[in-house]
Amino acid sequence: MAFVLVAPEMVTAAASDLANIGSAINTANTAVAAPTAELLAAGTDEVSEAIASLFSGHALDYQSLGARMTAFHDQFVAALTAGGGLYSSAEAAAATPLQDLLNVVNAPTQALLGRPLIGDGADGTAPGQAGGAGGLLYGNGGNGAAGTNPGVAGGAGGAAGLIGNGGAGGIGGAGGSGGAGGTGGWLYGNGGAGGAGGAGAPGPVSFNGNNGGNGGNGGAAGWWGTGGAGGAGGEGGAAGGDPADIAYGQTGGVGGNGGSGGNGGWFAGNAGAGGNGGVGGDGNAADHGLVAGAGGVGGAGGAAGLFGDGGAGGQGGDGGPAGLVGASDGGAGGDGGRAGWLSGNAGAGGAGGAGGVLDSTSPVFPGNGGAGGSGGAAGLFGDGAAGGAGGAGGASQTFTGDGGAGGTGGAGGWLYGNGGAGGSGGAGGAGIGTGGFGGSGGNGGTGGIGGLIGNGGAGGVGGAGNTNQVSGYSGNGGNGGNGGAAQLIGAGGGGGEGGVGGTGAAGVTGSAGASGVGGRLYSGNGIPDIFGRPLIGDGADGAPGTGQAGGDGGWLYGNGGAGGSGASGQAGGAGGAAGLIGNGGAGGTGGSGAAGGNGGAGGWLFGDGGTGGTGGDAVAGLPGVNGGNGGNGGAGGAAGWWGRGGIGGQGGTGGEAGGGTGIHAGNGGTGGNGGGGGWLSGDAGAGGQGGASVASNYIAGGGGAGGNGGAAGLFGAGGAGGTGGTGGNGNAPAGGDAGHGGQGGYGGWLAGSGGAGGTGGVGGLGDSASGTGGSGGGGGAARLFGDGGSGGNGGVGGPGTVVFAGGGGSGGTGGAAGWLIGNGGAGGQGGVAGTPDGVDGLLGGTGGAGGTGGTAGWLYGSGGSGGAGGAGTASFYPGSTGGNGGNGGNGGAAQVIGSGGSGGAAGTGGAGGPDSPPDIPAGNDGQDGVGGAGGSGGLVFGNSGG
Questions:
Q1: pLDDT digits (tens, 9 = 90+) for 414-445
Q2: Torsions phi, psi of 46, nearest 5?
Q3: What is the four-CA torsion angle of 276, 280, 281, 284, rounded to 10 degrees?
Q4: Where is the composition biased (Gly residues) (predicted)?
Q5: Comparing C-alpha atoms, which of 254, 394, 249, 390 is closest to residue 327?
Q6: ∠ at Cα 854 (848, 858), nearest 5°?
Q7: Which of 3, 117, 277, 487 is the most exposed place for a label (fewest CB within 10 A)?
Q8: How far is residue 937's CA from residue 899's CA, in Å, rounded to a whole number?
Q9: Closest Cα partner for 558 from 540, 583, 532?
Q10: Which of 427, 428, 499 is nearest to 459 (CA)?
Q11: Which CATH class, in words, describes the domain spanning 8-87?
Q12: How many whole angstroms separate alpha carbon 161 and alpha carbon 148?
């Protein structure tokens, strides 16, 4: 690695060139010195002598000036030569200490992780060897080595660290796959290109040709950068055939599939294009090979992140030519990649490969064209991409190949954008012999749907049927594709025209595609489409006791109606959805033991999701029959573009058991999940509380689990998990266990904290033992920036009124921080064990374990602290041991910069039972739990947790 900005070799070369130029000038000056300095006079008169003397004087002055310039030139060349030497000396003198310093900096990470802190990863050298990873802070990944040997895949490109480009994947050996490109730097850098697949080797005599290798996938970028292009698929090998006319039936190798393009950066950057599929192997009809190999499928284009263009799909490989019986089909084109969520162009679908062509030695069946790939969808704003064109059918003397179908157009932006046009169908193959058939054209692709505001895409044109060049039958034209539908405001796409049939006998023109449906509010003709809901106004509520869904709000403004409650055993009705602006309706309460209705969706542009309906309480069982389970709570409705998600409904209460041995009370219903926050901004809804189980004279039921919190969109906090339901009290041997807390929801894709986990429920009383407290739910993870949610606390064990007190529930795990920056969530505390009452209750319970702290963000942030273990409770039975304390949870780890989380404190053991003189001494105290270990500190800076 050079440490100066001047290349000494270039300085030395420049000095040599200047010396040669000076030598050439000196030679020229010497040659003209005498003729010009001793110029003879034209005559003997004074004027001629004066003129000759004047020019001779100028010549002498020129020679004097030339001598001085020669001296300056020699001095300059000498200085330049010396400078080059000094630069070389300076570089040699500086390189060793600087390299030594870099080695010292790189030593810890090299020893710990096998990669430097700063520097490029090494290129692979052995066949198929992967490139080395780049430095953690700065450096490009090394390139993967070529497979070289038959069947050996190319090596994968090395990954970059924080800043740098991923290495390119190596080319596969014969028939081997190309290596995947390395991922770009987490903060900045491009993904590496995937390696091309190796061409399949021709088959030996009487054997099939070998398949071509698949292209390697392009590497994904990190936060900012371009995804790598996918590698091309290798060509299939030719069929071996048999010139001696002994064996028939060999086939050409299939062309390799193109590799997928790498995704663009999370924040900004274009995605990589998919690789082209490989051409199918030659059928070798001359040596009695039977069928040619099919073309490989084009690779899919990569998807962009927040801003950027999706990658184009790769073109399908052409089918191989000229088998004895037929050629093979062209490969399908790859699908285009999705555009950036906020802005960017979607990737176009790849064209299908052409069907294989036959010659006079193979007059029967040619290949069909491959289908075009689908166009990529837009994000929030933007037009969908066009679908790829279908491949043309192969030509033949008799039957001919049909054209491939066009790809479907991509969907327009969710809020605004037009759908992409469908791809054109491929043309049918031409008949080249007497009495043959021309191929039919492929059907056009369907247009993509528009966004909330936007037109549907036009359907693709059907492919033309081809004409037999001598006589016979011509092919039919393909049908046009249907136009894409608009959604709220916009015109439906026009249907594609049918392909023209061949001009010979029986060629029929294809049918035109149907036009897409126009927008529900405005379809381009000035007349609003009502469809049973108002333009402005609230939706009607569902009738009670019917489970009827609430009506949808007005298209422009209005809240959804509330769902009606259900009759006995009937689910509650779903809340109505809002239109453009408004809140979703609440779900209806479920009838006995039935689920509550889901909350309605908030407005597309602005509005909150509706609350989920409460699950129905179960009825008591008849004699000899178990009690029914409580109904589950309904899910909260999701917000649209901007708004909060709805809260999940509470689970219903379990029913009392009927009389008789072995009869159970019903379990509480599960709480409903919270609704998702708005796509752009808005907090997600919390999960609903789990339902409790009722007290029973028989076997107790368990509490229902809390619902999970909803996930946020781009910006917003995840929803908290619901609390677990309480376990039921029972006179059978054990009380019911409590329900577990719900999981916290994910924070926003760009920024937002994860939701807290729900608290575990309280265990129920039992005749011999009480129920265990429910475990706390795990905290929700952040995504890019944000703190992880704290884990839920474990539930308290059931109190000991008979023999055994219930154990405390475990604390939930803290949520992981955002991928780049953020602190891990704290682990939940272990639940305290139930307490014996000292009269009938005898033995103390065990405390629950604390939850583990969440991991910090990769670049910066501290790990979450571990949760404390729950305390064990004292025993009252003489001579008995007290309940043990729960272990503390481990602290979460930091990654590059930040401190590790502290370990959770150990739970204390409960006191032992009293003595009972004279025979029974006092019991031992329960054991204290083990404290949690602290999380590791950052690799570059940060302390480990205590």
A1: 888 888 998 888 776 665 544 445 556 678 88
A2: -65, -35
A3: -140
A4: 894-913, 926-946
A5: 394
A6: 165
A7: 3
A8: 5
A9: 583
A10: 499
A11: mainly alpha
A12: 28
Rounded to 5 degrees, φ, ψ at 61 are -60, -40
- Measured N-to-C along each axis, helices 46-113 and 8-37 cross at an angle, to the nearest 10 degrees, of 170
Residue 623 DSSP class? T
> Quick one: 244 exposed, middle or buried, by C-beta within 10 A (0-12, 13-18, 19+)?
exposed
* Burial tier of 40 (Cβ tally within 10 Å: 0-12, 13-18, 19+): exposed
Q: Which two tokens stand for residue 819?
A: 């991928």
Nearest to 576 by CA among 565, 585, 566: 585
Confidence at 2, pLDDT banded by 50, 70, 90:
very low
- Domain layout of the chain by residue ranges: 8-87, 765-946
Tokens representing 533? Answer: 């809901």
SS3 of 168-224: the string is CCCCCCCCCCCCCCCCCCCCECCCCCCCCCCCCCCCCCCCCCCCCCCCCCCCCCCCE
| Residue in the block written with tokens 């001359």 | 286
Give the length of the chain: 946
Q: Cα–chain-centroid distance for residue 829?
A: 34
Question: What is the radius of gyration, based on Cα positions, of the chain?
Answer: 39
Using alpha carbons, select from 912, 930, 908, 931 the residue that is nearest to residue 922. 912
Residues 6 or more apart whose CB falls under 8 angstroms from that of 290 comprise: 239, 248, 249, 250, 251, 283, 323, 324, 325
Tell me the C-alpha distance between 18 and 20, whole Å: 5
| Peptide bond before residue 202 is cis, with ω within 30 degrees of 0 | no
Cα dist. 221→167, 265, 378, 522 in Å?
12, 5, 19, 41
Within 13 A of 263's CA, how many CA atoms are on the CB side? 14
The mean pLDDT of 388-392, rounded to a whole number, is 89
